[in-house]
Amino acid sequence: MTSRPGPNASAPTAPDERDSIVRMYAVTDGRTRARHRLSLHTVVGPGRRSPRELAEESSRIVGLCRQRRRPLVELAGTLGLHVTAVTVLVSDLIDAGALTVPVPDACSGGSDLQKLQALSAGLKRRWPNAKAG
Fold first, then answer.
1. C-alpha distances in angstroms, 74 versus 11, 78, 86, 121?
2. Which is nearest to 57 in space by CA: 20, 101, 24, 95?
3. Contact at 8 Å (CB) between 86 and 42?
4. In the prediction, which pLDDT does 21 show?
5. Number of C-alpha atoms within 13 angstroms, CB side, residue 20?
6. Strands 43-46 and 99-100
7. Ranges in the chain, pLDDT < 50
8. What is the DSSP string of the chain?
9. Quick one: pLDDT at residue 133?
10. Cβ neighbours around 18 below 10 Å, total
């Protein structure tokens, strides 16, 4: 007769999951919160300074952002790291001046009304029979 674990028994953690948690802990020095409020969609670009000694992951983040501006979620996916780890690293790199969060110039993009009208026109072209609900 084999015994089955009860409903309160916790399943053992998979080796890959444990490795991922340990790696995230090592990459961020155990930190789970970034100093800056950054969302998944925050776009970061290269900063003015180039720190000399960076950890491998931080160096890869800076390298990717030098190619082009990228959102945090894309950096996490490309590097194969948890978003929390990337957020902590990016926050550190912003503090070091290696990355920046570009702010769009309000004068260059036209008015908000023009943007909304352009968006509306594009949506109407894409879905001409759609109705607002």
1. 31, 6, 10, 29
2. 24
3. no
4. 60
5. 11
6. antiparallel
7. 1-3
8. ------TTPPPPPPHHHHHHHHHHHHHTTT----SS---TT-EEEE-S---SS--HHHHHHHHHHHHS-EEHHHHHHHHT--HHHHHHHHHHHHHHTSEE-----TTTS--HHHHHHHHHHHHHHH-TT----
9. 61
10. 11
Residue 55 has a pLDDT of 83
In the prediction, which pLDDT does 121 show? 76
First to last CA, the chain: 59
Side chain identity at residue 1, one-letter code: M
Phi, psi of 45 (to 5 degrees): -130, 180
pLDDT at site 75 = 94
